[in-house]
Amino acid sequence: MNFWNDPLKVAADWLSGVFVGWGMNAVFANVLVAFLGILMLITILMVVDIFLVWIERKVVARFQDRIGPNRLGPFGLIQPFADIIKLMIKEDTTPDGADKVVYNLAPMLSMMSVLILWAVVPLAPVMLGVDLNAGALFIIAAGSIGTLSIIMAGWSSNNKFSVIGAFRQVAVMVSFEIPMLAVLLIPTIFSGSMGMNTIIQSQNIWYVFLSPLAALIFLIAAIAGVGTRALRSC
After folding, report:
1. Both 41 and 106 in a single domain?
2. Could you tell me if 142 and 116 are in contact, meaning their C-beta atoms sit under 8 angstroms apart?
3. Are both 138 and 183 inside the same structural domain?
4. Looking at the 3D structure of the chain, how many domains does it have?
5. What pLDDT tens digit does each residue of the chain (234 aa) get?
6. Range of the domain at 3
7. 142 with 224, same domain?
8. Which residue, of 90, 116, 140, is where some domain finishes?
9. Is there a contact between 133 and 160 (Cβ–Cβ < 8 Å)?
10. Can you give the pTM of this predicted structure?
11. Is 194 exposed, middle or buried (0-12, 13-18, 19+ CB in 10 A)?
């Protein structure tokens, strides 16, 4: 098999062969290779997210007539790493009377809703986790888990103000997500499929040029949704 045609398959077969050569069962070797692939993807996403957080804080600071991170490292580039250390050593508390299981499960679901999206997002024609024929529907369903996590966190905290805040935030998120999801139907109609890889491969002419208004609506709604959460966190 040509490496350039399917580099991930070649690398996975080679690594699996190495594990089998060390005496590991072939089934366990394939499971371990799949686990390592998922771990590598998550690691890359987390590293990229660190720098995207820095960019987000810089941009939001300009919105609010501030400078943003500028103390740790050149241009404040080390600030996200300091924030990670701060989050790791912060005291983990659960409010009195809260539903402990639901309360602690909410942030896990929020993080999961972002990570599992990448299971169907093609990084290249042959570099994707799963080529689902309903990939667009999967993205919609997975993204809704983040909204559910906010409701869970507010309701389970046993605090009426948290419940009100959670419902308000969910209302804002839904108001931006509705046009985003409606616009997703356009590339689905153009390509005749809900598979993400099929949608990408069918773009002889980029759909952003065929439907620029839909692309603009999606971009504005996406920025508004992310910006709302960013402004609340500042």
Report:
1. no
2. yes
3. yes
4. 2
5. 444 455 666 777 778 888 888 877 888 888 888 788 778 877 887 788 788 878 878 887 887 788 878 788 788 888 888 888 887 887 777 777 778 888 888 888 887 887 788 778 877 666 677 777 888 888 888 877 878 888 888 888 888 888 888 888 888 888 887 888 888 888 888 888 888 888 888 888 888 888 888 888 888 887 776 655 544 444
6. 1-90
7. yes
8. 90
9. no
10. 0.66
11. buried
